[in-house]
Write a structure and sequence with these properties.
Layout lengths: L6 H51 L11 E5 L5 E5 L3 E9 L5 E16 L2 E10 L8 E8 L5
Antiparallel strand pairs: 1-2, 3-4, 4-5, 5-6
Length: 149
């Protein structure tokens, strides 16, 4: 009696192994795509949070401009001037231990501020990365002038 594996048994084992490896590669690819999309969403929401919270925190309602530039300070304590009513780009920078600036993320945005009576409506369209193609994420808020003077 001979011991060992037949060629058919080896081929079946290789087929099962190949199916397993292809499945793992497919799951890995999906996980990488999902991770990249989650990072883009985080970048967009972080930028929108910074801009809209700054507008809500302004003590003087009249200081919120409806044209020109919106001056604010980013999370790294850098002064920014975000353009209003044009498509522009913002790049967040972090600094390494040796003091070199490195890019954390970049978003393309369109900031629109309109005033109707005592309400300023802020609409912020944000695209992840360097392009303004595709569907933007849209954030909107209203800020009321509560001063009755």
């Amino acid at each position: 009696m001979k011991r060992g594996f037949t060629l058919i048994e080896i081929m079946l084992a290789l087929l099962v192994l190949t199916i397993g490896i292809v499945s793992v590669v497919g799951v890995l690819s999906t996980a990488l795509d999902t991770s990249a999309k989650a990072r883009e969403d985080l970048d967009v929401v972080s930028f929108a949070d910074m801009v809209l919270n700054h507008c809500h925190a302004m003590e003087d309602w009249n200081a919120i401009p409806t044209a020109g530039n919106l001056a604010l300070t980013d999370y790294s304590e850098n002064d920014l001037n975000l353009s209003i009513n044009t498509i522009d780009r913002y790049t967040s920078r972090a600094f390494s231990l040796n003091g070199n600036a490195i890019e954390q993320y970049t978003v393309t945005y369109n900031l629109n501020i309109q005033q109707v009576g005592t309400i300023k409506t802020i609409t912020l369209k944000v695209w992840p990365g360097y392009r303004s193609s595709g569907q933007p994420r849209i954030f909107q808020t209203e800020i009321y002038n509560w001063n009755k003077s």
